[in-house]
Amino acid sequence: MQKLEYSRVNETLYHETLPNGLQVFILPKSGFSKTYVSFTTRYGSIDNTFVPLGKDEIVRVPDGIAHFLEHKMFEKEDGDVFQKFGMNGASANAFTSFTRTAYLFSATDKLYPNTELLLDFVQAPYFTEETVEKEKGIIGQEITMYDDLPDWRSYFGTIENLYKEHPVKIDIAGTVESISKITADHLYECYHTFYHPSNMLVFAVGAVDPEEMMAFIRKNQEAKTFDKPERIVRQFPQEKMESAVKEGSLEMDVSKPKVHVGIKLPALAEEGVEGLKHELAYQIMIDLLFGKTSKFYTEAYEEGLIDESFSTDFTAEEGFAFSVIGSDSAKPEELTRKIQDTLQWASEKFPFGQEDLDRQRRRRIGFFMRALNSVEYIANQFTRYAFNGMNLFDTVTALEALEVKDLQEVLVPLTDEQARTVFTVKPPAKGE
Amino acid sequence: MFTETRLTQGVRLYVRRTEQFKTLTFSIRFKQPLTPEGASERAVLANILEDSTETYPSRAALRQALETMYGTLYYTDVGKRGGYHYLSVNAECVDDRLIRDEDITDWTIRLLADAVLRPNLQDGVFKPQVFEREKQTVLERVRSLYDDKTRYAQQRLLTLMRPEGPESIRATGEESHLEALTPEKVMEAYRRMIGEDEIEIYVVGAVDEKAITASLKEAFHFEGRVPAVLPEKAARGTGKEGRVSEKQNMKQGKLHIGFSTPVKFGTEDFPKMQLANGIFGGFPHSKLFMNVREKESMAYYAASSYLSRYGLITVSAGIDAELAEKATKLIDEQLEVMRAGEITDNELSQTKAMLANQLREALDSSRGQIEIFDQYKDLPGGFTPEGWIAKWEPVTADDIRDMAGKIDRQLVYLLSGKEESADAKA
Prior knowledge:
The complex is a heterodimer of chains A (432) and B (426). Chain A is 42% helix and 21% strand. Chain A contains 15 helices and 16 strands. A 7-stranded mixed beta sheet of chain A has the order 1-2-3-11-4-10-9, sandwiched between helices. Chain A has a 5-stranded mixed beta sheet with strand order 12-16-13-15-14, with helices on both faces. A two-stranded antiparallel sheet of chain A has the order 5-6. The longest helix of chain A is centred in the first third of the chain and has 19 residues, at 129-147. Chain B has 426 residues and is an alpha+beta fold. Chain B has 17 helices and 13 strands. Chain B is globular. Chain B starts with a strand and ends with a helix. At the A-B interface, α2, α4, α10 and α12 of A face α2, β5, α5, α11 and β11 of B.
């Protein structure tokens, strides 16, 4: 077991790669009553075209299958896994993102029975045509629920228009139509391909003894047999940096229009501290352009173009990256123009200097320290970075190494006019 | 959990020294009886206090200072509990020891004192531009409830059930009252808040209790006050009963059902009712989730909440509107089953374990420690997490049966799409 000390933030991380390829990380946090354990596979909604384990040909599976599979993992021949966690007083959950599916629990008691339950239920698939059919009703309602959320529709509408073919444009849950095609065989095929331990990571954080926990997981894994790990062949369409659709809109029953500007960005190419630096440079640049202390924010807020719903988002994974900026706005066209003008202004003459960087650096260092109060943040972010070849605990090092020229570099793709799209959710036209 | 110090009459300080977090958390809470007018004034006041101070007289200046101080969080908030409205002024800063070269704690205390005692004024009142902008922001927040159909439906349910009570008054105020505000009125509300409200100051983190108490005493000198208490409850008619359906342009049906119960927060039966609600619909192992979602595949979510201060239990489910009748029946059946005493040992022990876990888990954040302690601290005998968990232990299936007998359905509210109504089958 490897012991990694991060003295700047007073944390010690324990790590081991098990013989079956499973990565295990443990971070004890003193003073905490709960332990949060997540078991994550590097498999998300975008992984819809791949070579199934043991086969030679590429297949394309129905949209929404990773999320469907996540739901179905909880149902077993002898009942519902939530019930079993409930007996142990643990709250269990799961989520599917573009690139990951995570299963997790948090508990203040019965840590080992809960850990065993987590490892075992994720490693014992049970799908029948009957249970798959039944789930379609539940997920259908989940999709309908999202259909009625204007913020989600606006955000996703933006991403959809940025990409021509890349599967990041497809809603994580799929559609009622696409999930209707899912069969138990599909689920097994995806499961066997992507849920091999060598494609997965366990993170345990909180009230946990690292030696004991590592021994427990090791023993649990040794008792199971797995196929030999194989490199997973996933296929993604290559596409230009130009946004696929420049403008889109949707009518919904909202009190005020919602507008989002999307910017398609080059995918993360580097790993390690360099990769982190690159990502942080994007985040800081977006803050400087649109954050609460920016010229844009001050003016737009005073002019009533934005309100408390204003947000900026930056998403980057291997294979794709984008930023989405938006707000509820009574004047969506004016707001869009102001966002575009701000990008134009910044691209003409770089308006920021050392002082701006230093201030944002300090802010981010503080943010990171505060985030380390949250066991959920640590486990989820650590896993995300690990799957992208980075280490969450290099954050302070990367922040300290950032220079103004790193910011200048990321401004170029951020201000590329061709890479933009605008999406508006409008209230119904009067008289309808 | 917290060490209590009385700073003056009506002003108390609660400090919890812990090494658990990398930050120090501060919360100053002002409490007054809840009215729609008062909530509206204070919602705008909270926003004005968050915008700027005398020392940092613009939003950007204040935000830049916060960034420089390692991203210290500073925000205000409003909320309600029972018949009271709360305005809180909050900050969270990095523990000085992790940064070394700065005195962030002292700076943060100064900022809080500035925010509360030295606001950004012009000619003795809040600056008109700041006032106007923040009034607008709060108005927009209030109106945006319409866009979130689940929250909207819940608010409609409460308004229909308790049209005049604190149950349906929103802590962020009401449109008509917000519209009528002036800088002078909000200034007056500010003066009353500082001079008359009951005040509670919370600190959580690696602090020296004596030193922090001295610093806070020096930074804030509040005058003694006799806090207002809730007037004796005037006899209030309850609102609508039966069924109400409303339509908007949307796809999913939002089914919200309201139940009333005489068992409220702080009563003898309160812990039993917490368990009864947990068995009914508080968790993924509960009857509602297992039957409405898992067995019938009718919903993605189906859950109940116990609004213990108001003696209400509400159920919400996102369903196909055509199945509303069936879902309502199914939800009723779950309660019937409980009234008949059909509660398994498993359900009982799972729910006890889940409630205990939920409580202990919530205490793993500084905000959670403040929230939970603040809620329970005035109960007779004080509050410790383990002490409270012990109250759930002896509860039996018979107790749950009795509690289920004290839950009465009052109103079924359905918000659904217009198209469905046109095609609705007979």
